[in-house]
């Protein structure tokens, strides 16, 4: 009978330790989950800022052809090569090509 009592006592102690470990692990999991959500929110905010930055300051370069004059300016967008042309119409036309 004494052996059975000791076995049940040992079994109960082990169950209490496992319950405590489970509680600690559950709390740690909740903290980790909260941190994951915070990091995902930070990543989302960074991606939004990056998208806004790219919209304001595009990195792509394209060639632009323009003529300089002293009178009038016209804007043409070429669909064939994807460029935008500023053409100044008037006296002393000069053709230049620039990469923006």
Description:
This protein is α+β, with helices and mostly antiparallel strands. The protein folds into two domains: 1-58; 63-99, no CATH class. It is built from one helix and four strands. It has one helix spanning 2-56; strands at residues 63-68, 72-77, 84-89, 94-99. It has a four-stranded mixed β-sheet, with no helix packed on it. Residues 8-56 form a coiled coil. Keywords: Coiled coil.
Which labels suit this protein?
100 residues, four-stranded mixed β-sheet, 1 helix, disordered C terminus
Number of separate structural domains: 2
User: Percent range for helical residues?
Assistant: 55-70%
Topology pattern, helix = H, strand = E: HEEEE
Give the strand order of the largest sheet, numbering strands 1, 2, ... along the chain.
Answer: 2-3-1-4
Structural class: alpha+beta
Note poorly predicted spans: 96-100
Report the sheet with the most strands, covering strand number, pairing sense and barrel closure.
Answer: 4 strands, mixed
Distance between the termini: 92 Å
The gross shape turns out to be rod-shaped
Strand content: 15-25%
Q: What does the secondary structure layout of this molecule look like, with pairings?
A:
Elements (H helix, E strand, L loop, with lengths): L1 H55 L6 E6 L3 E6 L6 E6 L4 E6 L1
Parallel strand pairs: 1-3
Antiparallel strand pairs: 1-4, 2-3
